[in-house]
């Protein structure tokens, strides 16, 4: 199929409902919107379910750029292809897909290399438009432009996504599980598997046991880590972490006169082999670096900090310690190939996804998902569009 579809709406705008963030921090408003047909290289999909990721919460609260309003948030989802634009050969109407914020063109130097998942042809940015032209596919019923979010905007019954952001997925996997592979869980598992390349029998320390940190634990478990140390100020995460392979727990509030790094150094006899920062605080990156074993220790940064946050390291320590520090964007995964591997591991009952879903709500109750995350009660809340 190339720019054709048997959909009754193919080539025409669709009127549907979307949850719009009109002002920072204020409840989303469910309104009728107009979703334009896909243009060249684009696909219009019907969202089946979406889940709330912490990045949605961050940009919903953010008052300054790159935040922008009114916007349709949401980027962790599963949908079905409704129609395709010209030049699209990869998917056809009816295919089950997950949208992924990170592009994968499959053609540039980076996408063709096993060393990178950072597409050069479509470089990632926090854009509010479609990838190939700076225009929106959303308007409200008054004709006002509504902005896109992370190239996905899944808090809408229909959305338009560039093909470089879509990955086909096995339709037999339950939608409320498959959607988790769209962002956070894949990021955490990938960070252990692809970025750090955690080895069997090693020790891992994870700073922050939110959904991504717990996914790092899950990835480390799958890699055969012998000891997985979770660090979190929420004592409840001690028990929760055990479901995902966490063997030891450190609460910074209970360390008395010692730093977390001192505690971990003592626990491990010299430091963890791999340390993951999953909160987004430069001070925790420093603490993770201090907690890492000299000679071969790796620090992997996953948390999204303030854009102007800086890291400061002693030059001589960097020289003689032999430690390395690296970033892990989407866990180092290549969306169109590595997600298939995670999909298979879930089907083979190796990868745990079920335990991440703590709540499910209907679309009309989407603001409840935000409340649950703010209160720290949910790992992943799945939002069903029409249930």
From TrEMBL:
Family label: Belongs to the zinc-containing alcohol dehydrogenase family. Class-III subfamily.
The keyword Cell cycle is annotated on this UniProt entry: no
Alcohol dehydrogenase-like N-terminal domain span: 40-169
Alcohol dehydrogenase-like C-terminal domain mapped to chain residues: 211-336
Pfam families membership: ADH_N, ADH_zinc_N
A GO biological-process term: formaldehyde catabolic process
Molecular function GO terms recorded: S-(hydroxymethyl)glutathione dehydrogenase [NAD(P)+] activity; zinc ion binding
GO cellular component: cytosol
Keywords: Metal-binding, NAD, Oxidoreductase, Zinc
Subunit structure: Homodimer.
Native source species: Mikania micrantha (bitter vine)
Domain of life: Eukaryota
Known cofactor(s): Zn(2+)
SUPFAM superfamilies noted in UniProt: GroES-like (SSF50129), NAD(P)-binding Rossmann-fold domains (SSF51735)
Record protein name field: Enoyl reductase (ER) domain-containing protein
């Amino acid at each position: 199929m190339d720019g054709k579809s048997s959909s009754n709406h193919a080539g025409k705008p669709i009127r549907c409902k979307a949850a719009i963030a009109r002002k920072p921090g204020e409840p989303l408003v469910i309104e009728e919107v107009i979703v334009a047909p896909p243009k060249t290289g684009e696909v219009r999909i019907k969202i089946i379910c979406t889940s709330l990721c912490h990045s949605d919460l961050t940009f919903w609260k953010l008052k300054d750029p790159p935040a922008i309003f009114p916007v349709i948030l949401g980027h962790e989802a599963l949908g079905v292809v409704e129609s395709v634009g010209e030049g699209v050969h990869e998917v056809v109407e009816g295919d089950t897909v997950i949208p992924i914020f990170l592009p994968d063109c499959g053609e540039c130097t980076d996408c063709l290399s096993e060393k990178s998942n950072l597409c050069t042809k479509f470089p990632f940015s926090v854009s509010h438009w479609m990838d190939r032209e700076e225009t929106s596919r959303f308007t409200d019923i008054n004709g006002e432009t509504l902005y896109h979010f992370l190239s996905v905007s899944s808090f809408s019954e229909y959305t338009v996504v560039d093909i470089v952001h879509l990955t086909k997925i096995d339709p037999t996997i339950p939608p409320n599980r498959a959607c988790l592979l769209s962002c956070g869980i894949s990021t955490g598992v990938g960070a252990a598997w692809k970025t750090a390349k955690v080895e069997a029998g090693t020790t891992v320390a994870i700073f922050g046991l939110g959904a991504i940190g717990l996914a790092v634990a899950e990835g480390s478990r799958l890699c055969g880590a012998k000891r997985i140390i979770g660090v979190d100020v929420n004592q409840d995460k001690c028990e929760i972490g055990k479901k995902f392979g966490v063997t030891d727990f450190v609460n910074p509030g209970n360390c008395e006169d010692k730093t977390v790094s001192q505690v971990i150094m003592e626990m491990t006899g010299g430091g963890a082999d791999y340390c993951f920062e999953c909160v987004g605080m430069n001070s925790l990156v420093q603490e993770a670096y201090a907690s890492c074993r000299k000679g071969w220790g790796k620090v992997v940064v996953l948390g999204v900090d303030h854009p102007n946050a800086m890291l400061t390291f002693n030059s001589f320590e960097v020289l003689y310690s032999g430690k390395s520090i690296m970033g892990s964007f989407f866990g180092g995964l290549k969306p169109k190939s590595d997600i298939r591997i995670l999909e298979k591991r879930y089907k083979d009952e190796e990868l745990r996804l079920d335990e991440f879903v703590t709540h499910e709500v209907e679309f009309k109750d989407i603001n409840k998902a935000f409340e649950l995350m703010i209160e720290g009660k949910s790992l992943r809340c799945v939002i069903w569009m029409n249930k």
